[in-house]
Every structure is written in C-alpha cells, then in structure tokens.
Amino acid sequence: MASEDQLIERVRRKFPSTAASVRTGIGDDAAVVRAARRAEWVVTTDAFIENVHFLRRVHPPKVVGYKALARATSDLAAMGARPLYFLLTLALPTSCTTKWLDDFLGGMALAARRFGLILVGGDTTKYSAVVANLTVIGEIDPGRAILRSGARPGDLICVSGKLGEAELGLRLVRKGLRAGKQGKTFIKKHFYPEPRLALGQWLATHRSATAMIDTSDGLSTDLGHICEASGVGARVWAEKIPVVRVPPVLKRIGLDPMRLALHGGEDYELVFTVPKKRARSLPRIIAGVPVTIIGEITREKGISLVDSHGRDLPLRPAGWDPFRKGKSG
After folding, report:
1. What spatial distance separates the first Cα and last Cα of the chain, rounded to whole Å?
2. How many CB atoms lie within 10 A of CB 207?
3. Which CATH class is domain 148-314?
4. Across the 329 residues of the chain, what is the mean pLDDT of every consecutive 10-residue run?
5. Helix, strand or coil for residue 188?
6. Burial bucket for residue 329 (CB in 10 Å: 0-12, 13-18, 19+)
7. What pTM does this model have?
8. CA 10 vs CA 1, 5, 25: distances in Å
9. CATH class of the domain defined by 4-140
10. Residue 113 and residue 105: Cα distance in Å, rounded?
11. DSSP 3-state assignment of 25?
12. Domain chopping of the chain, boundaries
C-alpha cells in the first residue's frame, strides 16, 4: 500500500505544474500563481462521486479521470472563460491506489492537456468509495462573463450540437449494448465529453449571448435555470430541437429521441440566448460546432414545448437532479 506522499508524487509526475504564471505548484501548503492584470477569474467546483455520477464496474478508470475534469471545465465554457488551473481533492479505497489510480490519472492528464489546464495542488485521503472534487479556475476579460441572468423577452434560444447523445450512450453502456459504429459514437460522447470552450469564448468575445448555461442536467432542467435566474419564461419549438438520431434497433426497445434530447443530461452542449436582431448574423457553425435556434424567451413565466400542430404543452424539468431518484453516469 502506497503512503500519501507516494500517491502525491505519482500525481505530480502525471501533471507537471510548471508555467510562467505558476510560482509554486504541487508540493507546498498552497499554490502561488500570478494573475493577469486586466482579467477576472472564473472559479468553479464540481464533485464526481462513485455510485452517484459513475459506476466503477461500468466506467473504466481512464474515463472517470477524464470525465471528472471535463464536467468541471464545462462550467468555464458556459461563461465564456479561458481555462488556467485546477485543484484535485481525491478520496480513494485502498484497492484503487495502484493500477486503477494510474489509469484514472492518465485520463485526467489527457483532459488537462486537451483543455489547457495546469494542476497546481489539492489533497488526497482514504475513503470507502472514490470521490473526486475538482476546483477549476479560468479567466475572462472584465465584464465579459456570460451569466444565466441576462435573458430578456424576445431573445432567441440557441443550442449547440445535438442533444441526447450522451444519455443514449449511457443507456447503451448500462444495457451492455453496442449498436455498431453509431453506438460507439454515443458511448464516446458519454465517456469523453467535450466542453464547448471555443464556442463559449467566441460568444463572450463577440458579446453575442445575453445568457448561457451548459446542458449538464438536460435541456428541460438547464433552460429552466436560465429562466429562473432571468425572471422570464420560454417557448421551445419541438421540431427545431437537434435531437439524437436513434438507430432503428434501439427504437424498438423504447428509446424516444425527443425525451433523450429534452431530459438527458451530460451532453455538455451550450444553451444560450441571443437578441433577435443579433441572431440574424449569428453563424450557424461556430468554432466547428453547429448552432441551432430552438425557441424564444417570453415575458410570461413557465416553459412550454410547441408541438408540430402549434400547441403549447408544459415543459417541466425532468433532467438530472441528485436529490431525485435517478441514474448514475
């Protein structure tokens, strides 16, 4: 069994904490970094807990490490920030301190390189289950952070990518299904999500979005967060939602593309609002990611789904909620 100092040294080897802005990284009581003079920091924290957010018997350790950091980093994307540093607090059972830990760190190191993050510190301890807590720090030009609270009546609602792919991937994993090449694509979306950092930064730089959030909990839930913070309502046009294309073999087992798109979480796409005048010139592909207009912000509270017959149906939040009976993944 490795000592805590030995575990920390293994972490240090995976994540060099050297950069011009880092004066002191891993190995001291706290990190010392040099902040840019004309920037605001964007700071977020996120927990990734065994049997709540992932299942050790289902999710490989490399996936757990990658996804733990990707989830937290997506919060920076949702505000238009540039990633800088992160801190990792890791609790492990003794059985996970050897090969499992090395693979976990390998996945997290892959995510750190991909997102441009430097590990500057954290903590380790022993526990009966795996618990990873990430604090991620980014920066943004003063006044450019995109909040949830800026949506106004008349704004159009936009979403990036396709919705429901990660949820479909989770269903495949839990049922032990593969569904060919398409199935691998959905499983990859669930295992290795890509925070929309470049898109978020583009929207912040161009001052295009009035409010924004990522689809970590599902469209029906996350759009509700924007509406609540902004004091508005929304109408979503069902036919405009970029839903996942479910292979016919999977439709036969009762997977509805619309339900996956509305309530399935962990796509980590961006939902944002844009003034109607500005939406006319908004590119339909930004930073390589498709952008689709799916609805409008209303003065009346509540969210409705407009069906193909023009009927307004109530759209209630039914995405991920850790305090509701739900799923791990």
Report:
1. 29
2. 12
3. alpha beta
4. 77 76 81 87 97 94 98 98 97 95 97 96 95 97 97 98 95 79 89 98 98 97 98 98 88 85 96 95 97 98 95 92 58
5. helix
6. buried
7. 0.92
8. 13, 9, 15
9. alpha beta
10. 12
11. coil
12. 4-140, 148-314
